[in-house]
Amino acid sequence: MGQPLIYLYEQMKEEQVETIRQTAPDYIIIDAKRESPELIEDDIEIMLGWDKELGQRLLDSDTSRLAWVQSISAGVDTYDLERFAEKGILLSNASGIHSISISEHVLGVLLAEFRGIRTSIINQANKQWTRDNVSYRQLSMQKMLIVGTGHIGQQLAVFAQGLGIQTYGVNTSGHVTNGFIECYSHKNMSRIVKEMDIVVNILPLTDDTYQMYNERMFLAMKPGTVFINVGRGPSINTNDLVQALNTGQLSFAALDVFEEEPLPENSPLWSMENVLITPHISGLTPQFKEKLLNIFIPNLRQFLKDKSLAKNEIALHQGY
Fold this sequence. Notes:
With 320 residues, the protein is α/β, with parallel strands linked by helices. It has ten helices and twelve strands.
């Protein structure tokens, strides 16, 4: 067994690599996007980012030293969490990095819809000066249900309250969280959702959240509800969503994630006037790598100290 390796699948700047090297001087640092050195894969102990093919080989290896993976995303539904648990591999996510970006995205699409901006963009492209097809509503005092009250949900609640929106939350137990008038448990969501004007999904994908937005859930909502998904696409039954939009049960949907990505060209969502499609961009964040290092470096120091993590560790049996 050779010198342990830190495998950087996410390309970092030279000075960032040097920071990692100084923090872990006993490790060999492999920048996978810049170099293709010969290496003994089983010596990889830490991976920043997830190389699916290499990662699968390490999970299948009986002699792999892989002990910790730092994900670059908040959601970890693409990882084989059961195998991670079986092999005792730690997993941490990038929760918190995307909070401001996703919160701004949600408010941006809401303002575009409520103030008629989306329609005006279309009118401008057609060189039409008209108010006839511009609808507008007041966003202030609307009731917003934020489904997922973690870092992103809390940040969104703070921003939304600045616009006079009334914010309510849904989480696993219904525990009270800062920024919300009231919070409810998942099991009570179908009862409270009928009182809300806007529903925003920010949940990770787990067995419990898979296709939780189905015909039953949409019918439980107030007719004309606005729905936004910046969580995970498979949390929605797309056919049921299309039906709810066609019947007016939902007045508008802003969708950044989908069951299948890229969204197929034959999807009816493309041509629906009450749908805004964005190509999974809500989490794009300036200075992303600097913010990622603010999670990775404290975790690296803690890992070197006692093989534990300082922040953002995933409970593998829960999926978040």
